[in-house]
Amino acid sequence: MEQRNERADWLAAAFDELSTAGFQQVDEPDPDVPRRRAYRRLRNRVVSSGIAAAVLVAVGGVSLVRPVAAPPPTDVIAPSPVTDFPSVQMESLAAGPTSQSPTSLPSGPSTPTATPSASPPTDRPTSSRPTPRPKPTPTPTRYVDLSISAPRSLTLEPSDTAYTGTLDVTMGNAATRSYDAGDLIVVLPVEATISLKGTNIGGCFHQGQTDDLKTMTCTGDGPIPLGGTRSYQIAVTVNIAPGGPARTLTGFALTVRANVGGKFPADRSPGDNTAATTLQLPAS
Which of 69, 144, 197, 257 is the most exposed place for a label (fewest CB within 10 A)? Predict the structure, then answer.
């Protein structure tokens, strides 16, 4: 009786062990099973291709060489079964779809606000007077154009105490009107003087002097006719005692300008308003 009980206990223990192993196999499959299956498939493919190649070689009369089976690949790893899921996914699946609604789009395109254009206020009174046009500047029809000419060089004659001579001067008027009076500006070396005796040129007034030159202003003659000329002879004296080598004095110049009531209008061609003359003192 005891022997039967022991045998029954052994069978029950073996059944329990087998059941436990079976359940473990179902719950936790062996990770090497997929790897062994892949290896057997690859080996069968290599062996089949080698047998086909050997048959072809034998038919052609070539010595049959059985290909060596390739070693099982070591990089073929079957993916392990996933037994666990992230807790976040499980929680989201259990919670179901959320009630949050998608962001609503605008019902239509937004119309940009137009920038208001600047417009004058309507309550401001508008002047009905027309804008006055600028008056055209009248083109002057009268202008000044006087001229003066004289020899470029004048040789003086020695006397007892000085050198003397006469300078011929010509004034012209190419303007559109005659002037009641014209001024004559005279620049002389400090050793020289002039005499206007016998001419209609008025008196002279001293204007200034430097170490070498002195300046005078003389009132002009009467009106010079339009397009005409007027000639003068002006006596020149240099107060240097004759004797010794020849000498030359420069700086002597006569300039004419118009004078209208104490004003001096600009000349149209001022380049011919001055005549310069060099004074030559010969050796004695």
Answer: 197
The per-residue pLDDT for range 181-226, each reduced to its tens digit, is 578 999 999 999 999 998 888 789 999 999 999 999 998 887 788 8
Of 250, 243, 239, nearest to 280 by C-alpha is: 250
Sign of CA dihedral 42, 48, 52, 55: positive
- What phi, psi does 68 have (nearest 5°)? -80, 130
248 beta partners: 280
Q: Which long-range contacts (CB under 8 A, 24 or more apart) does 126-135 make?
A: none
Would you list the DSSP string of 96-141? Answer: -S--PPPPPPPSSPPPPPPPPPP---TTSPPP-SPPPPPPPPPPP-
Residues 111, 95: Cα–Cα separation, whole Å? 42
- Measured CA to CA, the distance from residue 178 to residue 254 in angstroms comes to 20
Residue 79: both structure tokens together = 């993916």
Q: What type of residue sits at position 237?
A: T
Express each pLDDT in 229-282 by its tens digit: 999 999 999 999 998 899 999 999 999 998 888 888 889 999 999 999 999 999
Nearest alpha carbon to residue 187 among 280, 268, 278: 278
The rounded distance, in Å, linking the Cα atoms of 27 and 208 is 134
Calculate ∠ Cα 121-125-129, nearest 5°.
130
* Beta-bridge mates of residue 185: 217, 255
